[in-house]
Amino acid sequence: MQNKVSVPVKLGRALKMKCPNCGKGDVYHKGKIPFFNAPPMYDACPECNYKFNREPGYYFGAAYASYALSVAEGIAAFVISWLLSPDLSALSLAFIVTGTVLFFSLWNFKLSRILWLIIFP
Ligand SMILES: [Zn+2]
Questions:
Q1: 86 is a domain residue
Q2: pLDDT digits over 30-40, tens only?
Q3: 107 pLDDT exceeds 70?
Q4: Rounded CA gap, 77 and 22, in Å?
Q5: pLDDT by residue (tens digit) across 94-104?
Q6: Cα separation of 11 and 38, whole Å?
Q7: N or C: which end of the chain has fewer CB within 10 A?
């Protein structure tokens, strides 16, 4: 059963990597993630039993959310770098943007799945 809470509250829970339904349970297991593996996700919320593990392919669409996050971060990195140092070469800006997107890639992966749960409950 899904609780009726506003979208900003759910987004706040998503940023804390908590269950979008109750805001208490973790969505992902704590601890180290094996190299080049996806972060392990609980099948259901440990607190409210809200189901995270949906049908196969459910999270395929989360790639679009991850892409949107990456583009937003890349644009933000570009604009901030360009405003702070307008004399940077195009190659330097490309490295900064690429580095920023790579730095946030794991966070984007995790957040995009929770966003997908919020968009398509
Ligand atoms: Zn929950």
A1: yes
A2: 887 777 788 88
A3: yes
A4: 33
A5: 999 999 999 99
A6: 22
A7: N
Query: How far is it, in rounded angstroms, from Cα 45 to Cα 53?
Result: 10
pLDDT bin (cut points 50, 70, 90) of residue 73 is very high
Tokens 């580095």, residue located: 99
**Residue 9 in contact with residue 3, Cβ under 8 Å?**
no
How far is the centre of ligand 1, averaged over its atoms, from the C-alpha of 80 (Å)?
37
In a domain, 1, yes or no: no
Residue 59 belongs to some domain of the structure? yes
Interval between CA 26 and ligand 1 midpoint (Å): 8
User: Are 51 and 43 a contacting pair, CB within 8 Å?
Assistant: yes
pLDDT given for residue 43 in this prediction: 93
The residues placing their C-beta within 5 Å of ligand 1, an ion, are 19, 21-22, 25, 45, 47-48, 50
Separation of CA 14 and ligand 1 centre (Å): 12
Number of domains in the chain: 1
Instruction: Give residue 46 CA to ligand 1 midpoint distance, Å.
Output: 7
Task: Tell me, yes or no, whether 2 lies in a domain.
Answer: no
> Residue 51 C-alpha to ligand 1 middle, in angstroms?
8
